[in-house]
Amino acid sequence: MISQLKLQLKLRVTSLAKYKRILLKLSGEALAGKQGSGINLAIIQQIAKDIAAAYQQNIQLGIVIGGGNIFRGIAASAEGMDRASSDYMGMLATCINALALQDALEKENVPTRVQTAIEMAEIAEPYIRRRAVRHLEKGRVVIFGAGTGNPYFTTDTAAALRAMEINAEILMKGTKVDKIYDKDPMKHTDAVPFDKISYLDVLNRGLKVMDLTAVSLCMDNKLPILSFDLSQQGNILRAVMGENIGTIVH
C-alpha cells in the first residue's frame, strides 16, 4: 500500500495537465445507465476509474453531482408537490449519489471528502469554502452534495457557483452526447455540432447545455464550460489533458 501511494504521488508530480483546478459536473442520470433510475454499480465504478486516471495528472478536482436518477424535484413539482419540499428531496438524492461516488473513488485509492450544503454531520462535512479549497490543495477530491442548499436552484447552478468559489479554471459537464448541437441529435438527424460556441449564442438559441442561470453566471465571471460525452471511457482524462473533445462555451 505504501509503495502504491508513493507511485501515485510520483505520477501526480510528473504529469502535465492543461488545467490545474477543475469543477466536474456529473448528472445523476449518468449513474443510472440504461436502467434509467437508481445507481448502476458497474457505471459508477467506471466513472470512478476515469476520475482516478485524471486525478493522477496532478490536478485539483471538485465534483458536483445531480440526483435525477433517484428523485427530480422539478418533475415532482409539476405533478403537484410543493416545489420547495420536492427540491429539498432532490438535494438529499444528490447526497446519496455523492456517498456512492466517494465509496467508488476510495476503492480506487483516491482520497475524497464529501461536503454538503445541508448539514448532516454523521455522513459529510458542511460546505465551507476555505475548507474545500484546503482539501483541494492537499490533493483530495471534494464532492459537493445538496446543490446550493436552496430550493429553486438546479445542480447546474450549484456547479457554476462552486466552480467560481473554488477558483476553478474550467467547468466540465459530463453528458450523454459528444458535443453541443443546434438541436436535439436524438430527435433530429440533421443536428449540427459545435466545437466552440459563445455564452450569448447558447442563451439566445436556448440550447440545453446547462440551465440559463448557470450559463449566465459563467458568462459574467468568464468561466469556460466544456460539455463532453461522459460515457466514452477515458474522456475525463482527455478533457483534463486538453484534447479536442466536446464543445467549449466561452
Keywords:
two-stranded antiparallel ribbon; globular; Carbamate kinase
Give a verbal description of the structure.
The chain has 250 residues and is an alpha/beta fold. The chain has a single domain (16-249), classed as Carbamate kinase, CATH 3.40.1160.10. 42% of the residues lie in helices and 18% in strands. It is built from ten helices and eleven strands. It starts with a helix and ends with a strand.
SSE topology:
Layout: H1 2-14, E1 21-26, H2 28-32, H3 41-55, E2 60-65, H4 73-78, H5 83-106, E3 112-116, E4 125-126, H6 129-137, E5 141-145, H7 155-165, E6 170-175, E7 180-181, E8 193-194, E9 196-197, H8 199-205, H9 212-220, E10 225-229, H10 235-240, E11 247-249
Parallel strand pairs: 1-2, 1-6, 2-5, 3-4, 3-5, 6-10, 9-11
Antiparallel strand pairs: 7-8, 10-11
Strand order of the largest sheet: 4-3-5-2-1-6-10-11-9
> CATH topology, which one?
Carbamate kinase
- Secondary structure class reads alpha/beta
Task: Provide the low-confidence segments as ranges.
Answer: none
**Rg result:** 17 Å
CATH class reads Alpha Beta
Estimate the global geometry from the Cα principal axes: globular
How many domain regions?
Answer: 1
CA-CA gap between termini: 42 Å
The name of the CATH architecture is 3-Layer(aba) Sandwich
Query: Percent range for helical residues?
Result: 40-55%
Largest sheet: 9 strands, mixed
- Individual helix count: 10
According to CATH, the homologous superfamily is Acetylglutamate kinase-like
Strand content: 15-25%
